[in-house]
Design brief:
Order of helices and strands: HHHHHHHHH
Number of strands: 0
Largest sheet: none
Distance between the termini: 101 Å
CATH class of the largest domain: Mainly Alpha
Strand content: under 5%
CATH topology of the largest domain: Four Helix Bundle (Hemerythrin (Met), subunit A)
Radius of gyration: 27 Å
Number of domains: 2
Helix content: over 70%
CATH superfamily of the largest domain: NADH-ubiquinone/plastoquinone oxidoreductase chain 6, subunit NuoJ
């Protein structure tokens, strides 16, 4: 019963964070809500004893996807100076999200070490069960076509993002490969003969 209450609380936080990601008009707020959603999802995976998925969610999504998000912010020409000036405005929501994340992690660690019946798993697995093996069998067995299709869509998204950043803008310095190939040594290097000085 207590486990289901914890699950309901985490699910509510996750849904609220997801709504915050898509409704926030400020990209910084969206990033903060996205981190909260990822960490809460990782805690839910820990409750299901899927530790591999939890650590991958934190390392890959919170680490890599948030870096990609920052690249997107830079591609959109967001005024970073203005964002830094509003740091005090973002601090309260950032502190609240950080507090919730720390509370969730500490609660899971405390529940695991307390030995209370709260830590009873939601899913009972046999001894020697490997969720990593199950994930591999599912991805590269039953859902291999969908997995490859998702990889192709991600590759297409990367190519499109690069093409969007190559648009012509005033004042943009570009590389002229043809001019670099045509260059000659005589055009770039000038040999100067300096007479030697004799000592008095």
């Amino acid at each position: 019963m207590i486990t289901m209450i914890i699950f309901g609380f985490l699910a509510t936080v996750l849904v609220g964070a997801g709504i915050g990601v898509i409704t926030a008009r400020n990209p910084v707020y969206s990033a903060i809500f996205l981190v909260l959603a990822f960490v809460t999802s990782a805690v839910l995976w820990l409750l299901l004893e899927a530790e591999f998925l939890a650590i991958v969610l934190v390392l890959v999504y919170v680490g890599a996807v948030m870096v990609l998000f920052l690249f997107v912010v830079m591609m959109l020409d967001v005024n970073i100076a203005a964002a830094r000036e509003g740091f005090t405005r973002y601090a309260p929501i950032g502190a609240i999200v950080a507090g919730i994340v720390v509370f969730e992690l500490l609660a899971v660690i405390w529940a695991k070490q307390s030995g209370l019946p709260v830590t009873a798993p939601l899913v009972t697995n046999p001894a020697g069960h490997s969720n990593t093996r199950e994930i591999g069998l599912a991805l590269y067995g039953d859902y291999v076509f969908e997995f490859e299709l998702a990889a192709f869509i991600l590759l297409l998204a990367i190519v499109v993002a690069i093409m969007l950043t190559l648009r012509s803008r005033p004042g943009l310095r570009t590389q002229d490969v043809a001019a670099q190939v045509k260059v000659r040594r005589e055009d770039r290097v000038r040999l100067v003969k300096v007479p030697a000085e004799t000592e008095p």
